[in-house]
Structures are given as structure tokens and as C-alpha cells.
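Objective 1b. Sequence-to-structure analysis of DUF4142 domain-containing protein.
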Amino acid sequence: MTRIAITIVTFGALAVALVLGVTWFAISEPGQRFEPAVNTLALLAGITGIFAERWAAQRERRQQAIESIVSELARNREVLAGDEFSEGAPGGRKLYSRLLHSAVDSAFTSGALSLRRDTELISLLHQWRGQVSSVNRRLELTEMLMFTTASADEADDFNKALRTFMPTVRSHLDEVESYLGAMRSEPSRRITSPLR
């Protein structure tokens, strides 16, 4: 409510000042129109500057959020390419690296992504976020079960069961990275997901 009131008062005052400046310009004598013209142009620049600054700040926040997400996805790709998730991984009890999702969470909570412009990206990131949460939960359960069971064979079975889930996670990661790659190459256009 306070922000709306401040916005209304600010733009109201600028609009009144602009109307007064134009009126002053219209009624002043031909040799004395320089000052009202400068005043009117300064007000127009101020009004335009407010919108331009807001637009530039939103664009910068969005770009930073996307760069952070791209960096986080690259780190997750490294985690998924690690020995612990490979088919030939040694058996036995182990602790797994977790997938990251803080950049995605930050992009959601900061409002850096626009519901109007980034609808499909937001949807993909929500799906990815759910996938990451599911993987991390499975990793915790697998570790708990492996360390509480007495049998090495059961620990190997847990490892194998976990690895069967990883191709789906890698596929989803590929989809998000492909979408972001296409979006970054042509940032002015809305781009549909290449894998849908």
C-alpha cells in the first residue's frame, strides 16, 4: 500500500509539473520560452528515466538470476557425472554429493523471473526443483538404509536402485540447460522448450 501511494504521489506531482511547464511554455512570450522549454524537457527526462531505470534494473536482476542458474546447473552436471553415480561405481557404503537448487530458489523468491515473459522457464525450473528435491531425498534414504543394514549385498542393491533413477534426472537437466542455452542466445525472444 505504501509503495502504491508513493508511486501515485510521485507520478501525480510529475504530471502536474509537466502540465504547468507546457502551459508556461504556451503562455510565455516568444523571447522567454527557453526556461519553460528546459523545465518541460527536464520533467520528461525524469519521467522517462524512472521507467528506463526500473526496466534496466529488472533486466539486470533477471540476467543475474539466469547466470546463477546456469552456473548451478553446470555444477549439478559435474555431480551427476561423478563416480558415485556411474554404472561402474564401486559398491559398498558411501556418502553421496547432493544436487544444488539455491539459485533456482533465489530466482523464485526474488521475483527476478517474469510470469509474463518466463512462463515456460519458470515451469521447467519448478519441475527441475521438484526433481532435485526428490533426488536429494532418495540420496538421504539410500545412505540411511545402507549404513543401517548389515549386509553389503543390500547396500549394493540400494546403489543399483538409485542409479536407475539417474537417467531421468540427467534428461531433465539436459532439457533445462537446452532451454536456457536457446534463451541466452536470443534473449529478446520467447523461446519454447526444444525438448517438448
